[in-house]
Each structure stands twice: as structure tokens, then as C-alpha cells.
Write a structure and sequence with these properties.
By secondary structure, the protein is an alpha+beta fold. 41% of the residues lie in helices and 21% in strands. It has a seven-stranded mixed β-sheet with strand order 1-2-3-4-5-6-7. The chain is globular. It starts with a helix and ends in a 5-residue tail after the last helix.
Length: 240
């Protein structure tokens, strides 16, 4: 598919222009740690890895792990905005959202250790941090019908739809299916006024936690840039 080849070329050109070769080489051969919930070696951690020969659905993947156990992962591609209906020149498009089956107790434990945020919300917060560090103005999620795995299904299952459309719609507080769900450079959740007063305080705490994850990941990716970001350069004092 021509649009797919355009997207892949754009993705790698953007990474090669922005990030150091040392980081890109490392992230191809191993998972690079970019966040951990605490100093406890058994706490949840997020690792980043760029595409390899076994991954054909996304070109950059985040893995949420506890020790050597995989909990959930989320993949993305950096694409031209006109391919996904965005006015932005470049979009970070989340193309894959997947948990590991039969690990319900582990999922609950990870959620508790991650500010009461589910694994995919923590991973999405990390994606937001990556987008900001790479100066990508729009972050978007793919709808179930456009997700590549759906082409191999006789019928798209409700569970599959929930992993994509259901997830994105829960953040927007709406229920109309879309090809792509655009967040801009911020992840806008439904207003706190739409949350019941009884749960509003906890909802605010979860949002604050996700913001902390985003900022930490942003600072980590900043270290691997070839050049400081424009906003960082502007904050530095002018030499005299």
C-alpha cells in the first residue's frame, strides 16, 4: 500500500533527523528503559524499542513490564498529517494497543502500583511524553476498522473494538466511531464536571499521575535528541 510506504519513510526520516544514531542503534537490538513507577526493582517499568523483523504493525513500541513479565504494550508510527486527516505536518499515530491475556491479577497489581491508572493509560501518557519530546504537535489513535489486524479477521470482535474505539471514546466521552481519534498535543479527557462528585478527587489524582509519567518520559527522550528542542533552547540564557 502506497500510503503505508509513505508513512514508514516519514517515520524513519523523522527519527533519524531528530534522535542520535547511538540511541537508534541501541533501541533496535534491545528495550530501552524510559520510566519506572518507583525505585523498587519489581515496580512497573516502561521500555521503548524500535521496529525489528518480527514487528510489522508498528515502528516504535512501548512495553509495560514487571520484572521479566510483559503486562501490556502500545505501538505507534510517526506519519504525515495528511494521511490521517490532520492539519499538523506530522502526527504520532498509536496503531497498536494490546494487553497480555490471562494476567488479570497482575493487571490489577500494576494498576494499583501506577497511581490507580490502568496499563494502557500509563502507556498513553508515555506516548504523550514522546510526542512532546519529538516536537510532534498531534497525537492520534487509530480506529478498530483501520487497525491492520482487522483485515485478517472474518469479523471484528467486540473485544477488539473495545481495545481501540472503546478506549479512545472513553477519553473523549463520546461514542461515535472514527477512523482516527485526534488529541492534538494534549490528551484531553472528559471534563471533571462530567465525573461524579464522589469520584472527582480520585480522577484528578489519576490525571496528575499520568502528567508526571508524561513529563518524566519527555525528559528521558530529550536526552537522546541530536539538538535541544526549540522551547528548551529559548529558555537558555543568551551568551555574553
Amino acid at each position: 500500500m502506497r500510503s503505508q510506504s509513505i508513512a514508514i519513510r516519514h517515520h524513519y526520516r523523522y527519527l533519524f533527523d531528530t534522535l542520535t544514531q547511538d540511541f537508534l542503534r541501541l533501541s533496535i537490538v534491545e528495550k530501552v528503559p524510559i520510566w519506572q513507577a518507583s525505585d523498587d526493582p519489581d515496580s512497573p517499568r516502561i521500555y521503548l524499542q524500535t521496529a525489528n523483523q518480527y514487528d510489522f504493525e508498528s515502528e516504535l513500541t512501548l512495553f509495560l513490564m514487571v520484572g521479566s513479565e510483559m503486562v501490556s504494550f502500545m505501538g505507534c508510527v510517526i506519519v504525515p498529517g495528511n494521511l490521517v486527516g490532520s492539519e499538523a505536518e506530522t502526527v504520532l499515530l498509536v496503531t497498536r494497543v494490546q494487553g497480555v491475556s490471562r494476567k488479570g491479577n497482575l493487571l490489577k497489581a500494576v494498576t494499583k502500583l501506577s497511581g490507580d491508572c490502568t496499563p494502557r493509560l500509563v502507556l498513553l501518557a508515555a506516548m504523550k511524553g514522546i510526542a512532546r519530546a519529538l516536537e510532534i504537535p498531534d497525537l492520534a489513535g487509530i480506529g478498530a476498522e483501520n487497525q491492520s489486524a482487522s483485515a485478517y479477521m472474518a469479523q471484528v470482535t467486540p473485544a477488539f473494538v473495545e481495545s481501540y474505539d472503546g478506549f479512545w471514546q472513553s477519553l473523549f466521552d463520546q461514542n461515535s466511531d472514527q477512523a482516527y481519534y485526534h488529541f492534538g498535543n494534549q490528551i484531553h479527557f472528559k471534563p471533571l464536571s462530567a465525573v461524579s462528585a464522589h469520584h472527582r478527587g480520585r480522577a484528578q489524582e489519576r490525571r496528575s499521575y499520568r502528567s508526571q509519567v508524561s513529563r518524566f518520559v519527555e525528559s528521558q527522550i530529550d536526552q537522546y535528541r541530536k539538538q535541544p528542542r526549540i522551547e528548551v533552547r529559548q529558555q537558555q540564557p543568551i551568551p555574553t
